[in-house]
Design goal:
Layout (H helix, E strand, L loop, with lengths): L7 E8 H11 L1 H7 L2 H6 L5 H18 L12 E4 L6 E4 L1 H9 L5 E7 L3 E8 L1
Antiparallel strand pairs: 1-5, 2-3, 4-5
Helix pairs in contact: 1-2, 1-4
Protein name: Holo-ACP synthase
Keywords: Magnesium, Metal-binding, Transferase
InterPro entries: 4-PPantetheinyl_Trfase_dom, 4-PPantetheinyl_Trfase_dom_sf, Ppantetheine-prot_Trfase_dom
């Protein structure tokens, strides 16, 4: 009989205006508090705000999949890596430890955006 693996799903939707407003108000302080250096480097060009918003949605989706409620979550410990044709997630530090405690070692992520919203879906196994 096959072994059934634990699975959790999280999703999030972000208005691009929220990210644009945060960038306008806080600039680099916002970027370095939320995103890793690799994420910032991957989010350039005309789609910069949409790419950042999709990554923010992915971070929130991980938190939802792990069912982290009322605890501080260092968002820089959740990283969307874009070094392949399909984005992937890397967890670091306390977030990685919390995922392992819950039995989750593999994560899938899907990102999308339109002219006004970005979204992400995360599956943890």
């Amino acid at each position: 009989m096959p072994v059934r693996r634990a699975r959790a799903v999280g999703c999030d939707l972000v208005a691009l205006t929220e990210v644009a407003d945060a960038l306008a108000a806080f600039g680099d302080r916002y970027l370095t508090r939320i995103f890793t250096d690799r994420e910032i480097a991957a989010c350039t060009g005309v789609d910069r705000v949409a790419r950042l918003a999709a990554r923010f949605a992915a971070k929130e989706s991980v938190i939802k999949a792990l069912q982290i409620v009322d605890d501080a979550t260092p968002l820089r410990e959740i990283e969307v890596v874009s070094d392949a044709p399909v984005p992937r997630l890397e967890l670091h530090g306390t977030i990685r430890a919390r995922a392992a405690e819950r039995g989750y070692t593999e994560f899938g992520v899907s990102l999308s955006h339109t002219d006004c919203h970005a979204m992400a879906v995360v599956v943890a196994e």
